[in-house]
Amino acid sequence: MMIYAILSVNKDSEKLNVLLGGIKGILGADLSVVNFDNVAVIGSETKRAELMADKSNAIEYAGVIESLAQHFTLLPMRYGSIMESTDAIIQMLGRNYSEIQQNLLKVENMWEFGLKVFCDPEKLKADLSRKSDIPPSCLAEPDPELQHSIYRDWVNKKLKEHRNEEMLLTYVNSVIAEITGYLTGLNAVNKFKKMANTSNIIDAVFLLDKDKKDALIHAVSDLQNQHGGLSFILTGPWPPYNFVDFTVK
Q1: Which of 96, 146, 168, 228 has its CA 20 to 30 A from that of 14?
Q2: Per-residue pLDDT tens for 130-154?
Q3: What does pTM read for this prediction?
Q4: What is the C-alpha to C-alpha distance for residues 240 and 105, in angstroms, rounded to an integer?
């Protein structure tokens, strides 16, 4: 069975059955439920050979999870998650029940959002260099013995590149601090990556209450207005893909 998500159902089993009646799994398969106490696994009968790297299947899979997330607290599973039988699923739920419950409580009534911050790296470095208030006399100079050597230009170039990279990293840290300041007011959980590549200087994901979506959008708009040289791209809401913290035993 192909597994899409683990849901918190409590007393909503009838609501779940009605919902599943209007949703199809990948390749048009019917969705089925495996119940265990207050949780349920949603899956469909799918042959492993049908799960070859196919973009359309992966998109359909994500669509099922998003439809379920509109109505239930859930833990999304990775595309290609397959268990051999209903009994195997029940045994897995029994072994992992405590961790599953803890994770469901953590993401209850929460959405995940993504934020990517892009820049023109050369333009940004040039702007930071112009705005730098470090006097030239305070900057490191190459060894006097190299001043008249054939390596002088190379050393000067490397020193300049190093200073520019340091200024860029300091600036990125300051922007992250600003973002974190907004998120603290929203009680959001966050994860940041810096310098994913030369143009994507910040790649972050947030987990916050569903009713704080508008406040997050407003915060990102404020940040965009304050940093005209950057491009802030907010995506979501998504199911909590990046905030499920357990390994299936």
Answers
A1: 96
A2: 877 544 444 445 555 545 566 666 5
A3: 0.80
A4: 12
